[in-house]
């Protein structure tokens, strides 16, 4: 029985996920390494990849600060409507990504009510990615903050430490592994994100075209080998970052 | 003092990024009256998109629920070579861009793909495969921790007392994992309804034939039918908010047990 069930699990995962993903790797090398290199170093691809990585890093950084701040307020502060705010955090996970783009366009788009129009700019890109990655750091940090014993903080306070010192020396080190885990998820999600940026970014090559949109265009124009090459590079970057983060997080746990 | 600064920074950020924009999409959808919005989401292509999203979700989610329960059970109860690798590979769909998922499926199931299939890509089977791919890990990830925490005592007691494998599963295992399973199914359903990138790539976006709700939203937007786009967006947002409410209720239930 276990052999049958285990066999079914492995076979299903192989058919649905592993075979298709290996097809991407195989296709990317179809025309040889030189072609692969050309595909990922073409100026338009370079611009898209660089933009994706830089903007994802910025998003991850802002998420780290704002996510921790929001988690802090949700755990340590009391105010009316806190339960509602806590539930709202998950909205980006529950909302389809295409709607996320539409939602931001409704307020910050060409005919928005506040007179700000950021459509088809890099700011729009940033906003869309901040929207969809918001829950990661909050949800990673929140439980750790809840479990944090307050007596060390109180001890430090009674010994005359200032709030900022307490945060930097006591709270931050305890939160760091969770923050890193959340940041890693944010970054990974931002690198691959497509639905929320496709409407709001305008997809202008060299300006607002991110890697996933570039790949989409290449598929549309039947350049699957080029699309596969950029995909493999993206996959490699996401994995490297996830591995790195999990390594740092694990070392944090050991300490 | 600093308490209020932190509170208002956090709430201001959430309002500007989440709450006000989401409220705005509702306003924009009904700006020209409820009748207009209703008309926009009841045109034949809109109805077909809604129907297709339901069909795809109703096929993909049960398949993933079965895979999820079986896989979580195998991972929780048995040791085998390569288990760690298998465990990591299950999370792959979370790490891969939806566009890459679409590309991967075209390369395997497309006409010139590995399997030389002519009726998968640009039609419903391909879209179902894409949806199964992207929502694959949810049920495993919710059920596995429950099974690991619960241990095998009750199942062993059951089989000692003469229960057969299936009886143990229906009477002991399934009741134990029911909340985790429900939670996983809700998450997978939300993701399946909301998936855009992977489905868009393999669908070919044929209006009235291979458009799901999300692809329909993009189609309306690109054809400058903003009322249509916002109205369909509101339908999807309402589905999302329903899911969110269910999640919140379930979490509270989880914590009470």
Characterization of the model:
The complex is a heterodimer of chains A (255) and B (257). With 255 residues, chain A is an all-alpha fold. Chain A folds into two domains: 1-30; 32-254, MetI-like fold (Orthogonal Bundle), CATH 1.10.3720.10. Helices cover 80% and strands 0% of the residues of chain A. Chain A is built from twelve helices and no strands. Chain A has helices at 2-28, 33-41, 43-76, 82-88, 91-94, 97-108, 122-147, 151-158, 163-192, 195-200, 211-220, 224-254. In chain A, α2 (33-41) packs across α12. The radius of gyration of chain A is 22 Å and the shape is globular. Chain B has 257 residues and is mostly helical. Chain B folds into two domains: 1-30; 36-256, MetI-like fold, CATH 1.10.3720.10. Chain B has helices at residues 2-30, 34-40, 44-77, 83-90, 92-95, 98-109, 124-134, 137-150, 153-160, 165-194, 197-203, 213-222, 226-256. In chain B, α1 packs across α13 and α3 (44-77) packs across α10. In chain B, 48% of the residues are buried. Classes of the chains: A mainly alpha (255), B mainly alpha (257).
